[in-house]
Design goal:
About 45% of the residues lie in helices and about 10% in strands. It contains 14 helices and 17 strands. Strands 3-4-6 form a three-stranded antiparallel sheet. A three-stranded antiparallel sheet has the order 8-11-12. A three-stranded antiparallel sheet has the order 15-16-17. Helix 1 runs antiparallel to helix 2, helix 4 packs antiparallel against helix 5 and helix 4 packs across helix 6. The longest helix is centred in the middle third of the chain and has 21 residues.
Length: about 425
């Protein structure tokens, strides 16, 4: 049986020997890396491990992946981390099999929901929220592949492949969303919290890409084809193909290869914009009808995060051109103030920058000086709470959303590990 207490002690002892170049940054790292295992993780008797997002008692498939992903940096010294990750994946796959259209789940069938939404099916008592977000279906397999890369394979089992087939079939269905039964409507809420057109979303045309109702911010997509999410799908399709090398599931393999080809073609045909100089960059969302939206959001997957996810190299010309525009006033959610500069989100107030996006700037470069700058900047935004927040006022770090946000904490830890690996290579 997985021993959560012993793992917490082992992690705490390990990180107490890590000293960064800045005392405040060190203290935040030591606290954040232990906080997730001690305050968000619940181990169930069946071996599933539930990971709450922080100040909300639900588990998001995407958030939980990035909450525990940094722990894989410690597996060589603390092997029991592999059991933690396996347990999280087991829980994620169980949720996927229960409802592949839901983004967040309860720890048990307690009938707690964010809102009483109208959907095409009654919302399950296990589901916290039923927003269809394509990145939610990618995240568990992204985590599973990272665990597999450590040499651990026990999680690649029947449930894994059953879940994979369900996800692939769901993606194929949502390539032609007009034929899908999925609906989502919420009353008495901002327009970003519900889907237009009787819950079907704004009009789209077939592109080969997969439709997404919502972004990783849980805000509704303006246009139905979310480009960073479709890039993320291509990443996990390649990973699934790598795992299928010694597997005899030829029909699943054929589905994946076909889906990969169609999404790739769709991104390159509809998801690229040409600027005035003739250079290409990625759109954030498109509809296949000629409409393209450029912006970037702090939540991952984002355009900024594409190299971190493994979609492209950090020196890829199209990515670099896209990155430059994301980190400029061409992105309507790029904010600059007397204290902070960076990417925020329409999910939070204007002029609020997210530590997740600050960390992602560092996670998508090998520039050590820049990475140090980002680490220090994030550490200085905690307002003496020893926690990373969601969004922070660019002019006053005492104004922020969410005092406790585990995903933000752990993305900061991921950045610290990135820095340490680069330093050790020198």
């Amino acid at each position: 049986m997985f021993d959560q207490e012993q793992l917490m002690i082992a992690i705490k002892e390990y990180v107490e020997n890590i000293n960064l170049f800045d005392k405040k940054a060190t203290n935040l790292f030591r606290h954040a890396i232990v906080d997730t295992i001690s305050n968000t993780v619940t181990v169930k008797e069946n071996g599933e491990i539930f990971v709450a997002t922080g100040d909300i008692p639900a588990m998001w498939l995407r958030d939980s992946t990035f909450q525990v992903l940094p722990y894989l940096e410690l597996v060589d010294d603390i092997p029991s981390i592999k059991q933690l990750i396996h347990g999280v994946i087991k829980q994620q796959l169980s949720f996927l099999l229960h409802d592949p259209y839901a983004n967040a789940f309860n720890i048990e069938e307690n009938d707690r929901h964010y809102s009483n939404d109208r959907s095409n099916i009654p919302i399950s008592s296990l589901v916290w929220e039923r927003k269809f977000e394509i990145d939610s279906l990618c995240a568990p397999f992204f985590l599973a592949y990272r665990l597999y890369q450590t040499g651990y394979q026990k999680h690649i089992n029947k449930d894994f492949w059953k879940s994979a087939e369900l996800v692939i079939d769901t993606f194929i269905t949502e390539q032609r969303h007009e034929q899908s039964e999925y609906r989502f409507q919420r009353s008495d809420c901002p327009s970003s919290d519900t889907l237009q057109n009787n819950g079907k979303g704004t009009p789209i045309y077939y592109t080969g890409m997969v439709w997404s109702g919502f972004r990783p911010s849980d805000d509704a997509c303006h246009y139905g084809y979310f480009i960073p999410g479709n890039c993320f799908i291509l990443v996990i399709l390649d990973q699934l193909l790598a795992l299928l090398i010694d597997n005899k599931q030829e029909k699943l393999k054929e589905k994946i290869i076909q889906l990969k080809s169609e999404i790739f073609e769709g991104i390159n045909r509809y998801g690229l914009i040409t600027d005035q100089s003739g250079s290409l960059y990625y759109a954030y969302e498109v509809d296949g009808l000629g409409n393209q939206l450029f912006m970037d959001d702090a939540n991952v997957p984002s355009l900024l995060s594409l190299p971190f996810l493994g979609y492209c190299k950090d020196n890829d010309p199209i990515y670099l051109n896209t990155r430059k525009k994301c980190l400029s006033e061409q992105n309507p959610y790029y904010y600059s103030g007397s204290y902070l500069t960076g990417i925020g989100s329409p999910h939070t107030p204007p002029q609020y920058v997210w530590p997740i996006s600050i960390a992602m700037e560092g996670l998508t470069t090998a520039d050590i000086a820049m990475i140090k700058e980002k680490i220090i900047k994030i550490a200085n935004t905690d307002d003496q709470t020893n926690q990373c927040h969601e969004g922070i006022d660019v002019n006053d770090p005492k104004n922020y959303t969410r005092e406790w946000f585990s995903w933000s904490n752990m993305t900061y830890c991921q950045l610290v590990f990135h820095y340490m690996k680069l330093i050790n290579k020198k």
